[in-house]
Design goal:
The protein has 181 residues and is of the alpha/beta class. It is 35% helix and 22% strand. The protein is built from 6 helices and 8 strands. It binds S-adenosylmethionine (SAM). S-adenosylmethionine binds next to strand 4 and helix 6.
Length: 181
């Protein structure tokens, strides 16, 4: 499988910080390799996600401020495919096999308020998670879970400082001893 990166379009400084942070956390937890926050630089969201990565491990990348059109065009020029998540797209179960087949790099685009109409033409696939309006976080979570066929739920992130110990009755966290330490 190639790299899978999420492109977050329409981020508004302050107003969308929490939702965009949750887009990033969801992408990271469910197996994506990174997020690009388009058009607006947001060092606060970047720092939050880097801190999570430092503590909980993995190799997740985050950048912000690059124009969305440039990101999509560069991705396609380098041979990658683009999935645009939208309530108006083709139903996920009908296209997921086709999306998985090329096994190259995949850019998954999610919006905020109004998505530029041009995005529908630039996408390799416009994909809906039900034909009902919902949240970009929910749509992204379902897409990644289908794409990875639930495998992201069992991944152990490398280079973690701390790890959550699953528990039925308490919050439990352990320090991870570095290899050779
Ligand atoms: C809260 S919605 C707003 C969409 C906006 N009203 C529009 O027409 O572009 C924000 C984002 O969530 C995602 N989204 C919402 N519903 C979806 C669905 N049913 N399937 C896939 N993605 C969805 C899309 O990426 C969308 O840009």
């Amino acid at each position: 499988m190639g790299r899978i990166v999420v492109l977050r379009i329409g981020h508004r400084f302050f107003r969308d910080s929490r939702v965009t942070t949750h887009v990033c956390l969801t992408a990271r937890a469910l197996g994506a390799d990174g997020v690009i926050i388009a058009d607006k630089e947001d060092k606060t969201v970047e720092a939050t996600i880097r801190e999570v990565g430092k503590r909980f491990g993995g190799h997740f990348s985050i950048e912000s401020g690059k124009p969305w059109r440039k990101s999509v065009r560069e991705w396609r020029r380098n041979g990658g495919k683009v999935v645009h998540l939208t309530a108006y797209g083709l139903s996920l179960p009908d296209v997921i096999q086709e999306i998985r087949e090329p096994s190259g790099d995949l850019l998954v685009v999610v919006g905020s308020e109004k998505m530029p109409g041009e995005m529908f033409k630039l996408a390799s696939w416009n994909v809906s998670i039900t034909s009902q309006p919902m949240s970009e976080i929910g749509a992204l979570a379902v897409f990644l879970d289908w794409y990875f066929e639930h495998r992201a739920l069992d991944v152990i992130f490398p280079n973690a400082q701390i790890r959550i110990v699953p528990s039925h009755d308490r919050k439990s966290v352990e320090q991870v001893v570095p290899e050779g330490g």
